[in-house]
Structures are given as C-alpha cells and as structure tokens.
Design a protein that fits this description.
Layout (H helix, E strand, L loop, with lengths): L3 E6 L3 H10 L4 E3 L5 H6 L6 E5 L9 E3 L5 E4 L4 H6 L1 H6 L1 H7 L5 H6 L2 H6 L8 H6 L3 E6 L2 E6 H4 E3 L2 E2 L6 E7 L1 H4 L3 E7 L10 E9 L6 E9 L6 E2 L1 H7 L6 H10 L14 H25 L12
Parallel strand pairs: 1-3, 2-3
Antiparallel strand pairs: 4-5, 5-10, 6-7, 6-10, 8-9, 11-12, 12-13, 13-14
Length: about 300
C-alpha cells in the first residue's frame, strides 16, 4: 500500500522546479527504486511526489566542448554501463553501476537518484567522488554547479535545496583524461545487496608508465558520506608505481576513514577491508593504466 497524497508529473525542468516551489516538502521521484520503498515503509507516508520520469532531456551521456563528460541525471545504471563514452573514458563508473541491485533495478534506477539520496553506500558515489565530479543543480534562479565534495552534507543529506533538482553530473576532462580505474564492492551477498564498504581508485601514470602522476581513491561506507582518501593519495602521488608504494598508500587509508559499527560489519572489519581494497583497486588500476586508459577486460592484474 502506497500512502501518497498527490503525484504531479513535470513536463520540463522549469515545470518541475515550479511544482517543488508550489508544494513545500514534496519529494522528487525519477525511477522510484528508492522513494517508493520509503513510501511503502511509512517513512514518507502521505507525501507529495513530483515525477521527473518523462524528462528525456535529462537522459544520456555527451561530451561537452571543453571535453567534460556530461551525464544526465535520469540516465539509468544500465545505460551508464553501456554508454560508449563511459566505456572509453571512465569504464570504472560502468563497473560501479553494474554492482547496483539486479537487472530490474539497474534498468529503472538512475545515477542521479543514486547520489541524491545522500547515502554513503550508493554504489556510484565513491567513483564520482574519486573523479571529482561536479553536480549541476537547477532551481528558480537557473542552473549552478556544486563540487561533489560539497554535495554531500551529512549522512542521508545533500546540499540540494527543496526547490532544486539535479539535472546533470559532470566529469571535467582533467579528472578523467589518461586515467584508468577499478572499483570493488564488498557485500554480504554477491548480488542484490547494499555495500558493506566500497572502494574506487583511478590512476594516471607517467609517459613511461613507471611513476604514479596522480592517484584518486575514495570509499563508500567508510564514513557518514562518501570519502576521499587524501593521505593515501599523497603517499602514492609522484612515487614509483610498485608494490611498496601501493602498500604505503593502502596503510595510509587508516588516517582517512571513519567507519562505524553496524549489524553489517564492525568498524574494525571495515578498516581491515578498506586497506585490502586499496591494495587491490590501486594494483588493478595501475595494471589497466599500463595497458591503456579505459581497459575493461583485465582481471586480477598484478604489478
């Protein structure tokens, strides 16, 4: 039983913003894979919904004139994973999208919804944080951009105003050019489960592929919001791309994360996982970078 006071269908972005202004407290619904569950469970009982499901202009991936990758907020996980631009430039984001739920959820759920619910376990969030994504908000005053680091305010809360919607996710060219990445999700089940912890790494190597020019490493469920591992990055950047550097970076992760105890896992176990996942994601990202950025067919590469 779904206790919904009213549902309005927006026919444009400006109409969606107008509906949100006219109905304070209304919730945006896109695919519905998160919102409808909350309604059914009673957490959003009696809510007003503003549907943006029909706004096809918010679907798809394109390359902007400045080289940035622009991902429409309503792009489904399945389309993110299959998109040629994603596969070519940031294949790791497709990897992360492929770990969400099952096929039905991936077909209806959207990447925008995944980051707008504010939860740290969102499967695409750590990769977007690692690629320093920029969020495009649209509200009554038009569109403006917010770095993803400022998008997440607290557990389950984002910087989106009540009369704004997320219209796009932008990956600047500088963030993805010449990089290769890898994502690992640890969960109690292999499918249809929320992450106990997730880790995403991307690497840019020197021309001779011996030096780590830039490492970006981020986690989900290692703190109240998706978290960059700045100490681990600093331990690797400018260093030789070898097992010793990887180990130092992995151990430095413990200075960056703040995992909690929950029924899924203890903080100590999450810390153990975080170190091991750093070893594996960084090692695999280096291996992929040595074969060419965007490589998606390597499994278990070593240094």
């Amino acid at each position: 039983m779904y206790d919904i006071e009213a549902i309005y269908e927006a026919d444009s972005v400006s109409h969606a913003v107008e509906l949100l202004r006219s109905h304070p407290g209304a919730r945006v619904i896109a695919g519905g894979s998160d919102v409808l569950i909350q309604v059914r469970e009673g957490r959003l009982a009696g809510t007003v919904l503003v549907s943006i499901h029909c706004l096809d202009e918010l679907r798809g991936v394109c390359l902007a004139e400045d080289g940035a990758l622009c991902i429409g907020a309503l792009t489904s996980f399945s389309h993110v994973s299959a998109d040629p631009l994603i596969r070519r430039h940031i294949a790791v984001l497709g990897e992360a999208a492929d770990t969400v739920g099952g096929p039905q959820i991936r077909n209806i759920g959207t990447i925008g919804g995944n980051v707008c619910n504010g939860v740290t376990s969102a499967d695409t969030a750590s990769t977007l944080v690692a690629y320093e994504a920029v969020m495009e908000y649209t509200g009554p005053e038009g569109a403006h951009r917010v770095p993803i680091a400022k998008h997440y305010v607290a557990a389950g809360k984002t910087a989106l105003a009540s009369d704004e919607i997320l219209t796009a996710i932008i990956i600047p060219q500088e963030s993805y050019a010449g990089t290769a990445g890898h994502y690992i999700k640890y969960a109690m089940r292999e499918a249809l489960d929320i992450a106990t912890i997730g880790c995403s790494a991307n690497i840019r190597l020197s021309v001779d592929r011996t030096i780590i020019e830039r490492l970006r490493l981020a986690y989900g469920v290692a703190g109240p919001v998706p978290t960059r591992a700045f100490s681990a990055e600093a331990a690797a950047n400018g260093k030789v791309a070898d097992a010793d550097t990887v180990e130092k970076a992995a151990q430095a992760v413990l200075d960056d994360i703040k995992p909690r105890n929950s029924w899924r896992a203890s903080a100590a176990f999450r810390s153990h996982l975080a170190v091991e996942m750093a070893r594996r994601t960084i090692t695999e990202a280096i291996a992929r970078a040595r074969l060419g950025a965007g490589t998606t067919t390597i499994a278990g590469g070593g240094l």
